[in-house]
Structures are given as C-alpha cells and as structure tokens.
Specification:
Distance between the termini of chain A: 30 Å
Number of strands of chain A: 20
Oligomer: heterodimer
Structural class of chain A: alpha/beta
Helix content of chain A: 25-40%
Strand content of chain A: 25-35%
Largest sheet of chain B: 9 strands, mixed
Shape of chain B: globular
Number of strands of chain B: 20
Strand order of the largest sheet of chain B: 3-6-8-10-12-14-16-18-20
Order of helices and strands of chain B: HHHEEHEEHHHEEEEEEEEEEEEEEEEHHH
Number of helices of chain A: 16
Radius of gyration of chain A: 22 Å
Shape of chain A: globular
Structural class of chain B: alpha/beta
Strand content of chain B: 35-45%
Number of helices of chain B: 10
Helix content of chain B: 10-25%
Largest interface: A-B, 45 and 41 residues
Radius of gyration of chain B: 21 Å
Chain lengths: ~475, ~400
C-alpha cells in the first residue's frame, strides 16, 4: 500500500498528516455512512480523551481522501471489500458485533477444525471468536504480578489510552504507522478498538513470551485491534499475537495495526499465526522502528483468509540495527495470500535477512512481495532474501516479486528464490520406507516449514503443524 | 501525456513518410491507426514502489526531440548470399506478402504510446529473411543516427530448421546539437527448429534518449538467443522478450550495461513459457559509476500449459561509486507446478580483498579496479558465442574504464 520514502526519514508526525496524496476523484466524492458521528460514538463509548478523538477524525479524513490500492501488479482482488458495511459492526449503539454468541452459529468447517485439533471447549469458544471470556485469567494474573514488579506494562490498548496517555500520545500512529500510510491504515486509525499495549523498561528482559491470547475477549481480539510495543534500551521481549486456531467473524474485513519501537540494543520478537476464516480480507499494517544495535524479528504465518495483503516492515534507523523476517504462507482453494516484508536501511552497518516459504495447493495463490531499500549513506549494510515456494498441483499459482532499491555502494545485497513441485523422488523415498503418499507429503511440508515452527513456543508449533496437516488432507472447507 | 506530442503530429506527416518510402496502402493504414491510437495509450509500464516510479517517462520532452520528417542516418545492412537482408523499402518490393503477414504480429503497434509512435513514424528498417534449412552467419546492421530523431524497425523471419546470427549496432553522428531520440522495434519470428541469435550493442551519445522493444516468438524446438549491451544514451528504456510458444523452445537473454555520469538504464528481460519442455536462461550484469542509475526487471512467467519448465535468472550489479543507484526486481510468476525455476539478484561493490591482493602486488589501484570490472563481465562475455560481438563489448567496457 502506498507510503512515501521521505516520510520514513523524518519522524515528525504533524508534517506527515499534511502530506498530499493523489486525490482520486471517485473516492473524494465518496460519502458513506462511515462518518464523523460514528467515530465520535466509538470514542465516546470508550470515554476517550480529546486528543485520541482528534486523531481518529483526522484518520477518517485521510481514509476518505485516499484511493483503494488497486494498481499493484497481480494484487489480490479487493473489489468485494465494502468498507461502508463496517458501520453496524463498529457502532456501539448498534447491537450487532462481529462475533457470534453461540458455538453452533459458527460455520461447520470451523467447528470441524476445532474438533480435529482437539481444543478444549472453553478455549474453543474464546479462540473461534464466540463472545466469551477465556478461562486463563488466573494464569494471566500471576504473570501480570511478576511483570509489574519489573515495571513491565501489558494491558489492553483501550486501557493504555486512559492509564498511560503520555506514552500512547507520543507513539500511537505518529512516526511508525501514520494514517497516511495507506487507505486501510487510515481506516484503522479511525475505527481501531482493542489490542495490546506492551511497555518494557530499560534493561528488563521478559523471560516468557507475552501472549495476546491471555487478553482475549470480544473486544481484545477484534478486527481492528491496535498493538503498540515499546521496548526501551537494552530490553528484551517476545510478543505472540493471536493464535493458530481459526477465527471467525461475520464481517469480512480484518484491518489491524501493529507498531513496534525497538530501543537501542533492545530485542523484540513478534510472532503471529494468522488464521482468519476463509471469508475474511486480511489487510494489516505492521511496522517497527529500530534504533542502533537493536534487533527486530518478525515471525509470521499466514494460513487463513480469502485474501491477505501484509508486508511487515522495519525501518533500521540506528547504526548497527538488525531485522530478521521469517514468513510462511499457505494458500488453499480460493485463497490469495500476498505477503512479504519491507526493510528500510537508513543507517550504516544495518543488517536484514528475510526467509520466506510458501505453499500453494488446490488453486490457491501465494505471492512474495517485498522491498529492500538501502538509503544513500547506509554504508556497510547487508541484506539477504531467500524465497522458496512449494506447489502441489497445476491449478495453483506461486509468484515472487521482490523489489530492491540500492542507493549506497558499500553494501552486500543478495536475493534468491526457487520454485518447485514437491519432489517425486523425495515422496518415493519415503514411500519405499513404508509411509503412504499423504504422510510422505506431510512430512516433506513439515520439514519445509520447520524454520518457522522452531521459532514458536511448542504449543503453537504443534498446532501449526496439525493445521497444515488438516489443510493438506483437504478435510477443511 | 508528455507535452501532447501527438498534437503536433499530423496525418499529413505520416502520409509523407509513407509516400517517401513508396509504401503499399495497408502499411499506411497501420501507421495511421497507430497515430490515432496515441491519444488513448499509456507509456510503457515502469516499476513502481511506494512513493516512486523507478523511471519517469512522462516528463520527457518528446515534442522537443521528435522531428519525424528530417530523419537522417548512415546504414549498413549486409549478410551472406544465402540469406535475404533488405531495407524496408526493398522488402516491400520483393517480399510484400511476407512483410504484410509478419508486420506487427509479434509486437502489437498499439501496445503502448512509444510503440505506436515508432510505428507511425518509422522511416528506416531492416528485414532479414532466412529460408527453410539455410544456415547463415554474420548478418550485420549498423545504424548511425544523424538527425534529431530516428525510428527504426527490424523484422527477422527464420524459416524451418534455419539458423542465423544478426549483429546490430547503434551509434550517433556528430552533427546535431541538443537532445535526441532513438526508437527501435525488433520482431523475430522463429519457425520450427530454427535458431536465431540476435546481438545488439547500443552506444549512442549521451544526449540521446532511446526506447527499444525486442520480442521474439519461438516455435517448436526453436531457439532465440538475445544479447544486448547498453553503454551509451542519456536514458535507455529497453525490453528484450521471448515467448516460448512451441514445445521444447528455448531462449537465452544475456544483458550487459555500463553506466557512468548521470546515465539511466531501465532494462528488462522477460520470458513467457507457454508450451511444454521449454527452457529459459536470463543473465544480466551491469556496472555503475558516478551518478548512473540502473533499473532492472526480469520476468519469468510460466503458464499453466507449460509442463516441465526450466527457467533461470541471474542479475548482478557492481557499484563503483557511492552516488550511483541500482534498483532490481526479478519476478517469478508460476502457474504450473511442474517447474524448476529460480532467480537471483545481487548488488555490491568491487571486492576489497581482491583489490588489496592486487595492490599489494604492485598493481596500481586504478588498474586493479579496471581489471576487476573487466573480470566482472567475463561470465556475460562467456555466454556470447560470436567472437566479434564479444570483442566489441569488451572494448567498449575497456574504453569506458580508461576515460
């Protein structure tokens, strides 16, 4: 989606809002139901301070002024995304939430998946988007106390606006993901709700992964959730968003925002396994700004959704900063997963690696779309991009579209990609040792995605593997 | 559209060009259709990333440097006796049916604004016809442009089981001040089991903007190998493309460029696998000095009918100066899983260790750098089967290093 280079070089937010975009006449004239009144209602309902309302309204104006992203080569078809339809789902005065109230209202395929994954009843409800409180509150309370002793803040984003206004005011959609970044970031800025706020003070290491999981309720796991992570100098944290079990929603747009601030010498890992139900358009904006010697790691698995457009990006702002991406995409029937990574090397001695794996099957399409930008002056920077794609059949599509913009000569830039079908020889080898065809293929795929599963806590890794098995059996809708 | 160039172009001008070449009615019609289409057409696609176009063609002052009625050139069109090498006028005399059948069959004249402009205004061209079963070497086409603008058209028709090697060179004469424009369209129709090698070396002066689109259709077991060297011009927008239409067809596209000062090279290699058992190999190497900029796009498109495809692409750029910029986008589009495909791209500078090794053995830093740059081109030169062409390119590189 569209942003501007120069944007990324400065960090003055006010200027950015005034950045002039091409006006698209068709959209300038758009007068939908998504109006100021709706935004005021949301803000009022949350009892928000004036400044947050102002930001929402500014983002709304951006949203109406910006064109739909439609001119990307071979991009997923977004013509069915009707943003005006959102209104009933987000207005607090309309009794119609995106979640369902009862397990039985869920589509059969989702019920099926849960049964097959063997997830306990209580969790099932919470995970799948049935509006119920998850039973892990106790566990969460214990951990909360331990973190609080160290000064770590982990709370709902709505609560953070109330309790930590200074931190939020400074970091919320200012220098990292301004609403002007793209139409859906602007939409998000106007109607965001829920999500997590994480603050890790200087020098503190959070030993175990923080999981959004524990914060889940009908609001926290919303479709427009905002995650803000601030890791101060020398701190360390691993945040896990959501879960690998399928999530269902009546309204078919998910447009979240993630902003990560990696302080000097800090280390942040952000892991997510996205598995929206197959009616959902998943259009997220995720970005990190990384100070000198800091490390950002994005681990992303995209399994679900009808169409996904997601390019987690990192701005390597300080000398010696590092960014690593591991992404995996699995597209089955009717799915178009267009995902990748963006890295801006804006300082000397910055390093990035991108490892992308994709699997397409039964007519699904995966595309790696990524950008490496090395600014003039970012000398002795290096980047390496590796994309591997596995295709199961002739109905499927697998594309790779990397972009490299190199303005600095003292660099080491390498991109490589391979595409192939599952090796007949490998399958034969396994079969000759007693595995049947399906098991052999599953084993090959499990090996193929290992780089990502090994980065996840064991319960996620197991779940992810199991999910892929189910996808491969074609036993899911 | 840039400066509304076509507002200044008249039907009368196009008729005048057509008459001076004594053309048949159908070609005049084709030209006029292309002229009419200008209003509706966009510039050729350029790569865009958020916030920028990698090459901006819309700001070029075509109106300032297109001067259709005063085209002047020196041309050599020579080949061995067994192959017919004709100027466009001769070809329309002697082989009208062939030209009529093939003209615009590979590159649609109305594909984009610049192809239509070229079709409406071309005043010079070459037709190479290789009869069935004929093996021909060394067809040479030299174009030296002596006017503000020149529109060139080339058609190669290779009959069944024939083979031919064609070398094309473009340079500019000394007698025009200010900016200039050279446009060249090349169509190759390679019949079953034929083998066409087409090399081109562009070394026009640095006041000249060039647009070139070269595309070939390869029939069953046909081979089209392209070599393209870009050394001259202020700005070059060039595409070299092959459609592998027949079973077992093959194509190799070898590219080399060497930019300095503020030159801008926008080069693309594209191949479409549209039949079974086809193979493609794309190799490009470029060097950038001073404030030069390169934009590279490589596309390997594997269609759903292209079973058992092999497709490879490599692009390497060497940056000699910190003011230069190298942009690259190698793309894979795969619609058939029975494919072995890969691509890679690298950007870097002269290896400091190599440099140290040589300077520590008494080679001056400048000479060491020059040797390493020449060495960088070796893998590309090695792909060039025609010795004369290899030497020419090598010499241009060496000359530029000595500047």
């Amino acid at each position: 989606m569209s942003s501007d280079q120069d944007h990324l070089r400065e960090t003055d937010s006010e200027k950015r809002f005034e950045f002039k975009k091409e006006q698209n006449a068709a959209f300038a004239a758009e007068k939908g139901e998504l109006d100021e009144e709706t935004i005021r209602l949301i803000s009022e309902d949350k009892d928000e301070p004036e400044w947050m309302l102002e930001r929402r309204l500014r983002a709304l104006r951006q949203f109406h002024a910006m064109p739909m992203p439609t001119d990307w080569p071979s991009q997923p078809d977004l013509s069915e995304v009707d943003v005006e339809e959102i209104v009933p789902y987000i207005r607090p005065d309309v009794d119609m939430r995106g979640s369902v109230d009862d397990w039985t209202e869920l589509p059969e395929e989702i019920q099926d998946t849960f049964d097959k994954l063997g997830i306990p009843e209580a969790e099932k409800n919470a995970l799948s988007g049935v509006g119920a409180q998850y039973e892990s509150e106790v566990v969460y309370q214990n951990m909360q106390e331990r973190w609080e002793e160290k000064g770590v803040i982990f709370c709902n984003m709505d609560k953070a606006v109330q309790d930590h206004p200074e931190l939020v005011k400074e970091h919320f959609m200012t220098s990292c993901v301004p609403p002007s970044d793209n139409k859906f970031a602007a939409l998000h800025g106007a109607i965001w709700s829920g999500g997590s706020f994480v603050y890790v003070p200087e020098g503190v290491t959070v030993e175990m992964p923080i999981q959004a999981y524990f914060r889940m309720n009908s609001e926290g796991m919303g479709q427009f959730e905002h995650t803000l992570i601030i890791a101060e100098e020398g701190s360390e944290v691993h945040y896990i968003e959501g879960c690998s079990a399928p999530q269902y929603s009546k309204f078919n747009l998910h447009s979240g925002g993630v902003e990560v601030f990696v302080g000097e010498d800090a280390h942040v890992q952000y892991s997510t396994v996205q598995n929206w139900s197959k009616n959902t358009y998943n259009l997220n904006t995720k970005r990190a700004i990384c100070e000198s010697e800091g490390t950002m790691e994005w681990i992303s698995g995209s399994m679900g959704s009808k169409a996904t457009m997601l390019y987690p990006s990192t701005i390597l702002k300080g000398r010696g900063a590092t960014d690593n991406h591991i992404t995996i995409a699995f597209a089955g029937e009717g799915q178009d997963i267009d995902t990748g990574a963006k890295v801006y090397h804006n300082a000397p001695r910055t390093k990035s690696t991108i490892e992308s794996k994709s699997i397409s099957k039964d007519g699904g399409r995966t595309n790696y779309r990524g950008l490496i930008h090395i600014s003039d002056g970012a000398e002795n920077s290096s980047t390496s991009v590796e994309c591997d794609a596995l295709m199961f059949d002739n109905e499927s599509t697998s594309d790779t579209m990397p972009y490299m913009e190199i303005e600095e000569s003292k660099v080491d830039v390498a991109h490589e990609a391979t595409v192939g079908k599952i090796g007949d020889e490998d399958v034969f080898y396994l079969q000759s040792r007693g595995l049947d065809d399906d098991d052999a293929k599953q084993m090959i795929v499990a090996g193929f995605i290992e780089p990502i599963t090994e980065e996840l806590p064991i319960e996620y890794a197991v779940e992810l593997n199991r999910l892929i098995e189910l996808e491969m059996e074609g036993s899911l809708g | 559209m840039s400066a509304q160039l076509h507002a200044n172009l008249t039907e009368a001008q196009v008729r005048e060009i057509s008459e001076s070449l004594d053309e048949p009615e159908w070609l005049l019609e084709t030209r006029l259709d292309a002229l009419d289409a200008l209003d509706e057409l966009d510039m050729p696609d350029v790569i865009r990333t958020p916030g920028r176009n990698w090459t901006n063609l819309y700001d070029l002052d075509f109106a300032g440097f297109v001067d259709p009625l005063n085209a002047a050139e020196e041309k050599d069109q020579v080949g061995p006796d067994e192959v017919e090498v004709m100027s466009i006028t001769e070809a329309l005399d002697e082989r009208e049916e062939l030209v009529r059948e093939k003209f615009g069959s590979v590159v649609d004249p109305t594909e984009n604004y610049l192809t239509a402009l070229s079709t409406a205004l071309f005043s010079t061209g070459t037709v190479v016809y290789v009869p069935d079963g004929v093996d021909a070497e060394d067809v040479t086409v030299r174009t030296r442009m002596n006017s503000r603008s020149l529109f060139n058209y080339t058609l190669v028709v290779a009959g069944e089981s024939s083979s031919v090697t064609i070398l094309e060179r473009q340079t500019t004469g000394e007698d025009v001040d200010g900016e200039r424009y050279y446009s060249g369209l090349v169509e190759i129709d390679a019949d079953e089991n034929s083998n066409v090698q087409y090399g081109s070396l562009q070394n026009v002066d640095q006041e000249t903007y060039t647009y070139s689109l070269k595309r070939g259709h390869a029939d069953t077991y046909g081979t089209i190998d392209w070599i393209e060297g870009n050394v001259g011009s202020r700005l070059t927008k060039s595409s070299v493309e092959t459609r592998l239409l027949g079973e077992g067809a093959e194509s190799q596209i070898v590219g080399a460029f060497f930019g300095h000062d503020d030159q801008h090279f926008d080069v693309a290699s594209r191949v479409w696998h549209e039949a079974e058992h086809t193979t493609a190999d794309l190799v490009t190497r470029g060097v950038l000095d001073d404030e030069a900029r390169s934009v590279y796009e490589g596309v390997q498109d594997v269609g759903s009918a292209a079973w058992n495809t092999n497709s490879y692409q490599r692009e390497n750029t060497l940056m000699l100066s910190d003011e230069s910029e190298a942009d690259a986008s190698p793309k894979l589009i795969i619609n058939n899983h029975d494919t072995e495909a890969s691509h890679s791209a690298t950007v870097g500078q002269v290896d400091q260790q190599d440099l140290f090794y040589m300077t520590s053995r008494g080679v001056s830093p400048r000479a060491a750098r020059n040797m390493l740059v020449e060495g960088f081109f070796v893998p590309v030169l090695d792909e060039i089967a025609v010795e004369e062409f290899r030497d020419d390119l090598d010499e241009l590189v060496a000359a530029r290093l000595r500047e």
